[in-house]
Every structure is written in C-alpha cells, then in structure tokens.
Write a structure and sequence with these properties.
This protein has 191 residues and is mostly helical. It contains 7 helices and 4 strands.
Length: 191
C-alpha cells in the first residue's frame, strides 16, 4: 500500500530489481498475445491499459524489455544467482528460487499463461508453484485496509464518474496484481 506495508506474503527475494528484470526478460508477451489471446490483443506497455490514454505509458523500443532467455540467464548469473545441480538457481543468501504464481482459477487465460510462464521461468532456473484461486479467494488475501486503499486508488484512476461494480472488481484485481508485482508477489507476471 502507499504506507509501504507489503501486500501478500510473497518471496522476499522479489524485492531485488535485478531478479525482476530477469523475470521480465524471460516472459514472452508476444507469444501470450499470439497463442493465448489468439492474436486478439496487443502487447502491453505500462501497467495501465491504452484505453485509459490519459494514464497510459507506452515504453519506447529502447525502454521496452525484450524476451531473451539467454539475457535473462546472464542477468541472473551476473547478480549471483547460481544454478544448482538440480537446475534451480539459488539467491546470494542460499535460498532456492522457488516462487508462487497466483491467478484466477476460473479464467482459461490465467491457466494458459501460468503454463507458459512456469515453463519460461524453469528455463532460467526458477521453480514456479501455480496457485490458481477463485476471485473470492484472491480478494480474501487482502486485509481490509489494503482493500480500502485499492478502492481509493481505483477511484483516482477512474475519476468521480466511477465504474460499475463488475468493472470495479476487475480493476481491483488488476491493481492488486500490479501492486503485488511491484513489491513481492509474482501474480502480476501473468495477470
């Protein structure tokens, strides 16, 4: 939240920006659009969709992180994340890179993306445990104060006119995913 309190109970190793950069290098967003969305989408830029033009940021080609498993592996090696004999990397402190990927169990999109992301991260030495849950379970992971903060942020994003209840819940789940990714969860990797 805005006070710096963590949302969720993600792996603390995700506080490392270098690790998160390597994860971003290992996720092929074009494949997700082509295979999961059947070409009926576009690769995202910033965290706010292009439909909200006043808030959207689209990175330049130089700023955009490109899919490159070799570069992701190099990024991790240079940061001290060494592969063990089982192919799983360890953090500089010795902990294995084992992450949780949270998503919606009732959305085929989340299920398909989870499969792709799990495979790509395995290719760079990161084990992923898929944790696909219902919408109610996902929202239940938030504390009341965190839920109130997300509602406030949604109000700021959509202005005084607001959005209907369904859009608000969808936006809340997306804001949760964004905030979680910024801090210590892996859920936003795929959502």
């Amino acid at each position: 939240d805005n006070a710096g309190n963590p949302i969720g109970d993600g792996n603390p190793v995700l506080k490392d920006l270098t690790l998160r950069k390597a994860i971003a290098q290992a996720v092929d967003t074009k494949t997700i659009v082509d295979k999961v969305l059947k070409g009926l989408g576009q690769v995202g830029g910033g965290v706010v969709p292009a439909v909200y033009a006043a808030y959207h940021w689209d990175p330049s080609d130089a700023e955009r992180i490109k899919f490159d498993l070799a570069a992701a592996n190099t990024t991790l090696e240079q940061a001290g994340y060494r592969k063990g004999p089982d192919g799983v990397r360890t953090a500089p402190g010795g902990a294995k890179l084992e992450l949780r990927l949270t998503g919606h169990a009732n959305r085929s999109y989340d299920q398909a993306v989870a499969q792709y992301v799990t495979g790509w991260l395995k290719d760079i030495g990161i084990t992923v445990k898929q944790d696909l849950v219902s919408d109610d379970e996902l929202l239940a992971m938030l504390k009341p104060a965190q839920l109130a903060e997300l509602n406030r942020q949604i109000g700021e994003m959509f202005g005084a006119e607001g959005v209907d209840r369904v859009e608000a819940l969808f936006a809340m789940a997306n804001v949760y995913s964004m905030r979680a990714a910024e801090r210590d969860e892996t859920s936003a990797l795929a959502m």
